[in-house]
Amino acid sequence: MSRRPGLRRGRGDRGTGTVTVLVLLFTFTAGAVVWLARDVDRVVTHRSAAQSVAFQAARAGAQQLDVAVLRSGAAAPVVDAARARVVVQRTAAELLAAFGLAGRVESIEVGPDVVRVDVVVSDPSGAVHGTGVARARGGS
Prior knowledge:
By secondary structure, the chain is an alpha+beta fold. It is built from 3 helices and 3 strands; from the N terminus they run αααβββ. Strands 1-2-3 form a 3-stranded antiparallel beta sheet.
């Protein structure tokens, strides 16, 4: 029996295609996991920053008390709504700039002794919201 020279060519490469496919599959899967982890981390960081900005802005607003009410000897402090709104906007803008975020104050609610602020931070995956509430308290 004579052997033909080209008949056995490529027999040692059995399984190379499968290994290549598995390596590519694992590579793309690992890349997707890393991308997803970075994306989730960014959203969580932006949500935390939005919450922080909203709370600090609400706190600054709640510190704007109506001086006339305080001097009258009222039992409970009253927030000066006009000053509180100005201070909330300014504080939120300064904090967003300090965090390096693009965002805005979505709403400000001022009650007699409470300030509520909603902040929206822009994120490539969508808007991230944060809410902060602060109450004015009297004390000595």
